[in-house]
Amino acid sequence: MAVSQKTIRVVIGKVGCDIHERGALVLARAFRDAGMEVIYVGRYQTAESVAKTAVDEDASVVALSDHTGSMRYIAKDIVDALKKFGGADIPVVAGGLIPKRDLPYLEKLGVTGNFGPGTPVETVIEHIQETVAKG
User: Fold this and answer.
1) Are 78 and 59 in contact (CB under 8 A)?
2) How high is the pLDDT of residue 18?
């Protein structure tokens, strides 16, 4: 699928007390190598700080990473915060240790991807490109 000429800007967020950032760092490098601009806000963020950064940086997408099994709560808070700051149109993709029982809830929120461990990086990149291209 063709992607628009506008550079994709990805804000990568780690909300809460999850110390596991290796996946987020690997993805940040892969996204840059794929021609995307990456803003990694670091660990221990609040949903509001990630959402505000996404709006302030004119992000094309927010990519969430969590390895605590709390994505349903993190994603809900992010979606609400994006609405609060005027970024309701910014798509949210997620990955990490996401309980299967949470997948329908995340999809209902509009959070896509919901990738688990072992997902090929190329799959995540293609998903982001397709998500942004859909506008």
Assistant:
1) no
2) 83
End-to-end CA distance of the chain: 13
Q: How many domains does the chain have?
A: 1
Q: Which letter does DSSP use for residue 114 in this model?
A: E
Q: Is residue 133 part of a domain?
A: no
The CATH number of whichever domain residue 33 belongs to comes to 3.40.50.280
Positions of E strands within the chain? 9-13, 37-40, 61-66, 92-96, 112-115
Cβ-based neighbours of 88, under 8 Å, separated by 6 or more: 79, 82
Domain that holds residue 113: 9-126
HSE, side-chain direction, 13 A CA sphere, residue 93:
22
Taking the model in full, what pTM does it have? 0.93
pLDDT, tens digit (0-9, with 9 covering 90-100), for 3-53: 446 899 999 999 988 888 888 999 999 999 999 999 999 899 999 999 999
